[in-house]
Amino acid sequence: MSTLTKFRVPTREEVSPNNQAIFDKLNSGLGFVPNLYAAMAHSENALGNFLTFANGATSFSKKEKEVIDLAISQVNDCRYCQSAHTAIAKMNGFSDEQIIELRKGGASWDAKYDALAKISKSLAENRGRVNEDLKEAFYAAGYNDQNLVDLVIAAGVIGITNTFHNLVGVEIDFPIAAEL
Predict the structure, then answer these.
(1) Residue 104 is part of which domain span?
(2) What whole-number distance in Å separates Cα of residue 34 and Cα of residue 27?
(3) What pTM was computed for the model?
């Protein structure tokens, strides 16, 4: 017989003063503290370290970051991140239909997004062993070596949240994304 161990999301009062300050900053910027971030606050350092890493400078636009996040979250079957990044992608101008296509690893309406979605999906599926045709298409779409390096970093960021949610299963506090 197995029992499901529920990973508790701490409240502001239950976390360290350092994490309380981060909660306050998240509340002022987002209007709430996402459950996945709050769950990281069980650790004295994880939330701050993660947010520093996740919010670092990148050569990708906000829309391009969503292309990466949607494709990889789908591969990693993370319902939390699929839902969060569907909401963020909508705020960044993607339609529901485009978001579904990005989650499937393509973008028929835009060659540059298409190349980025395809290489992102393959990167996650193949642990970095992307076929040369996808890399060539990435470069042909206008991306460069800096973008390739930043893609690996972006994949790492979303991989952390995908893995963390798949492990702890905290409640999704975004509108639930459609199943594919």
Answers:
(1) 62-168
(2) 9
(3) 0.95
